[in-house]
Amino acid sequence: MRLQKNKNNIRRKKNLINKNGNGSFGKYFIKSLYVFAALIIIFAAGYSGYKSYDYFFLNKKVFKLKKIEIIGKNITGKEKNKIIAQSGLFKNENLININLKKLSRLAASYRWVKNVTVYRKFPDAIVIVIKKRKIFAMIVYKNNLYYVSKTGYIIGKAGVRSGYGYPVITGLNTGDSGVYFKKLRKALSFLRISAHSILSGLTGEIHIEKDNGIALYTRKGLCIKFGIGGYKNKLKTLKKLFLEINAIHIKYKNYINLEYKNEAVIKVNKGSRVLPAGYKAEHINGAIFK
To answer: Tens digit of pLDDT for each residue in 28-67?
Structure first.
């Protein structure tokens, strides 16, 4: 009976504790301690990681810049030095902190550079991969020669180092920049077409005439008037004309006119003759030119 009474008393005390909320508070307090402890651990780990990163990578500069490698075809030592100077990099700079996008823009500001790829080479180098612009022709501007690319990008002033063995484009002088570049594009387009024709490697000068026609001068001084438009067909006509000239040994002056559609006019010793472009493959009788 006494044992039963003691059990009943214990149950009453538990019920009183639960009613007063002391048990719930205890559980909540313990959980709060666990959460608080976990937050402290996370914070401590994060702070420790940050301090380690700051110590090893930023303050102590573990990855110090020692080398700048420039890779690309036909890049001279002088050009490499210019690219390095424009990149804004300096020795012992932190490799992690280098802004690669900014570095690419700075390297590309050198006019000879067409494309740039930049990447880090741990532990101590930056690699700059360069693709240079190719010289396609030269233009005359204020009595000076300048190199231009296929697209008309002005690369820089012509000099002995890169040579003068490129076609010169003349007749561009105008006060209107829009007209200037329109003429330049026309000349460059013709050069691209003629580069795959019988004139490949022979062109010395391309002149844009007042009527916007094209006159070409070979390296040997032959003047060929192409006029306006139809250049692919006119180049085919020129090829056929040269075949006939060589076959029958025509003696002619340094002048060929291809301005007329499907015709070629040359200045032979005794007057000019007109040769139709669509003539048959057999040779023309040389007697007609006597």
So the answer is: 656 666 666 666 777 666 655 555 555 555 555 578 899 9
Output the six-digit token pair for 51: 């301090």
**Buried-state track 189-225, b at ≥16 Cβ within 10 A, e below 16:** ebbeebeebebeebbebbbbeeeebbbbbbeeebbbb
Tens digit of each residue's pLDDT (9 = 90 or more) over 204-219: 999 999 999 999 999 9
Q: What is the CATH number of domain 137-289?
A: 3.40.50.11690
Architecture of domain 67-132: Roll (3.10)
Q: Can you tell me the distance from the alpha carbon of 120 to that of 129, in angstroms, rounded to the nearest whole number?
A: 12
Going from N- to C-terminal start, the domains of the chain cover 8-59, 67-132, 137-289
Token duo for residue 191: 């050069």
